[in-house]
Fold this sequence. Notes:
Blueprint: H1 2-22, H2 26-29, E1 30-46, E2 53-59, E3 65-71, H3 75-80, E4 93-101, E5 107-114, E6 120-122
Parallel strand pairs: 3-5
Antiparallel strand pairs: 1-2, 1-4, 2-3, 4-5, 5-6
Amino acid sequence: MRTESALAAALGVFLIATPVWAHHAFSAEFDANKPVKLQGTVTKMEWINPHAWIHIDVKRGNGNVEKWMIEGGTPNTLLRRGFTKKSLLPGTEIVVDGYQAKDGSMKANGRDLTFPDGRKLFLGSSGTGAPRDGSDPREPNR
């Protein structure tokens, strides 16, 4: 009986801690000194926790196409900010401002997303360690 209780407690701790391991601070993966501005075409939108991912094809001046992954806030946060499941269908042209991954890969943490008609949506999540630039209306003025 004691062994079963200890096993159940250990399993509970593991299940609670697992999501914490999966989540990371901005500075663990992205570089505030590597801002990027990417103009491209959405190929896929992943509404997964703990962060949504936008996949875009970015055509460079030499004709090469780079496949970028843009990390956004949680799906719930994005939905509250005006995103819907139909906001970023494949083929949608967008511009993303964000910060590149520290390892130099074609991965970025998105800050803002701009549609061709000028509409903007805030992608980032406050309190993650991302640079404060006033884009998030919830950021305190300093």
